[in-house]
Design a protein that fits this description.
heterodimer; A: 120 residues; Substrate Binding Domain Of Dnak, Chain:A, Domain 2; disordered N terminus; B: 294 residues; 60s Ribosomal Protein L30, Chain: A; 2 domains; rod-shaped
Chain lengths: 120, 294
């Protein structure tokens, strides 16, 4: 019984991957994913991504991916899903790049302060 | 024969088909990039600091590889490859942010420690300064106390001198000039004519003067004067001997020897004309000058 269950778990992702490859509409419309992607885009914008060139690029790509996904909803939900997932990945990367830039700025400031205090 | 012709035509096609299927597919550049990005993340900072996101990137890459194996031309395959690439980049970015936060925290910690050390050093210096200030204040207080004591002593001396002056004024003429307090004793009171031995009555007066000048710690000069009768040399000699007699007596009565000097002035500095008896009597005199304190 345990062996059978394990086998089922191993096969399921493979079948899902085949479905993606075949371009069928096996997946449901990406309503939740869409909402999550929009939230990720909003979070990236709020984190200062528009002021960081790399982050801004990926933020724009996320928004473009969402626009690309829209026509596929209800017609090719699998494609819509992958595009929405890609939009989320782009938005999360934009957020992370903005956070990275801010952290590196703070590190430079702290190290500058340290040098200044050592020079006194 | 027909079979042979068919076989002749079909066999190369089948072989070519098999060869085409067996030939390994060349992965697109985007997939190659995604693989490289994943390796960079796994082997780099992300592998150490952010294994969870590296695992996510691994799963995404596996999905992209599977999709490419089964449906290389499907548009979704390209999307999955991009997702894998972005997941690897995300892991690297997250790790870089973590590293920067760690660096900032370490620098702040070191800066805080340096500030604490500076503060402690400043406190130490402040303590030293406060201690030095305390010592200086004590010294100042001692000086002020000493100054007050000195002032009291001086005031006491001034009062004693005033008392002495009042006492002396009863037996001799007392006045002040640029030399100090001048006590004048007439020659007839002190000496017989042309002599320098003190008369008994003179000793009684000098006793009172000596007693009054005791402990005053002022320099004293005894001047002897004569009138102009006789030779100048004789008068100079007589006036010196009379001044010496008075000096010796005062010393014998307790005035410190090193404080008292004597000087004969002869007929110089007369108080009156020597043309009359009264004038000459006024000029024959001894002056005891109590000088201001040196």
């Amino acid at each position: 019984m345990t062996t059978k269950t394990t086998t089922t778990w191993l096969i399921a992702p493979a079948v899902a991957a085949l479905d993606v490859g075949c371009g069928s509409s096996a997946l449901p419309p990406p309503n939740d994913q869409w909402a999550a992607a929009e939230a990720d885009v909003g979070r990236a914008q709020a984190s200062g991504a528009p002021a960081v060139p790399d982050a801004m690029l990926h933020l724009q790509l996320a928004q473009e991916d969402l626009q690309k996904a829209r026509p596929f909803i209800g017609k090719d939900d699998t494609r819509a899903n992958t595009l929405t997932t890609l939009a989320r990945a782009e938005a999360q990367l934009a957020f992370s790049l903005a956070k990275q830039a801010a952290a590196q700025d703070q590190a430079r400031t702290a190290q500058g302060d340290l040098r200044d205090s050592a020079a006194k | 024969m027909h079979w042979n012709r068919t076989a002749t035509v079909a066999l190369p096609l089948v072989i070519c088909g098999v060869m085409a299927c067996a030939e390994p597919q060349i992965p697109p550049k985007s997939l190659v990039d995604a693989r490289e990005e994943f390796v960079r993340a796994k082997d780099g900072l992300a592998g150490q600091l952010d294994p969870t996101d590296v695992h996510e990137a691994d799963l995404a890459l596996q999905r992209a590889e599977a999709a490419w194996q089964h449906s290389p031309d499907d548009p979704s395959t390209g999307d999955l490859v991009l997702i894998a690439d972005r997941k690897a980049l995300l892991a690297e970015s997250q790790a870089a942010a973590m590293k920067a936060e760690q660096d900032a925290q370490a620098a702040r910690g070191q800066a805080d420690a340096a500030r604490v050390a500076q503060l402690q050093s400043a406190k130490g210096q402040l303590n030293q300064t406060q201690q030095a200030l305390g010592v200086t204040q004590l010294q100042l207080q001692d000086q002020q106390n000493a100054s007050a004591v000195q002032q009291q002593k001086l005031q006491g001396l001034e009062e004693k001198l005033k008392d002495a002056r009042d006492t002396i004024a009863k037996i001799a003429s007392v006045k002040d000039d640029e030399r100090g307090m001048v006590i004048t004793l007439q020659g007839e009171v002190l000496f017989k004519t042309a002599k320098w031995d003190l008369k008994p009555g003179a000793m009684a007066k000098l006793d009172q003067i000596a007693e009054a000048l005791q402990g005053k710690e002022r320099p004293i000069v005894v001047y002897g004067y004569t009138d102009n009768v006789g030779t100048r040399d004789n008068n100079m000699d007589l006036s010196q001997k009379r001044a010496d007699s008075v000096r010796s007596y005062l010393v014998s009565k307790g005035i410190p020897q090193d404080l008292v000097t004597s000087q004969g002035k002869g007929p110089d500095a007369p108080l009156a004309e020597n043309t009359s008896v009264e004038g000459r009597a006024q000029n024959r005199r001894v002056e005891i000058v109590v000088q201001p304190k040196r």
